Amino acid sequence: MNKKEAENLLKLSRNEIDRIDKDLIDLIHKRTSLAKDVITAKIALNMDIYDPNREKVIHEKMQKLAKEKNIDENIIIQLTNILTNLSKFEQQKFVDKLDKS
Question: How far is CA 75 from the centre of its chain?
Fold first, then answer.
């Protein structure tokens, strides 16, 4: 590969990464927006925000998917923790709003 080809490949790859990053943010937003529905149901079912059984299922599912795609499972678990923490944070915000009203 010559320098021009390498520069072009780098540019194309970075453009694709930028597009994927936008898609990831859109998906995280979509996932996070479900927190209100989740907490509404949990309140009706008299459940806590933290559901260890559900988180275990999520972690197992994500580990399996990571393994299938040959992605480091530890990194995926870290990302999963971030996503579940974000969901719990959003659920707590909704509960706090209810408590203030």
Answer: 13
Instruction: Report residue 81 as tokens.
Output: 């923790």
pLDDT in tens, 1-41: 999 999 999 999 999 999 999 999 999 999 999 999 999 99
pTM summary value: 0.85
Q: Cα separation of 72 and 66, whole Å? A: 7
How far apart CA 43 and CA 29 sit, in angstroms, is 22
Helices H / strands E in the chain, number of each: 4, 0
Separation CA 95–CA 87 (nearest Å): 12
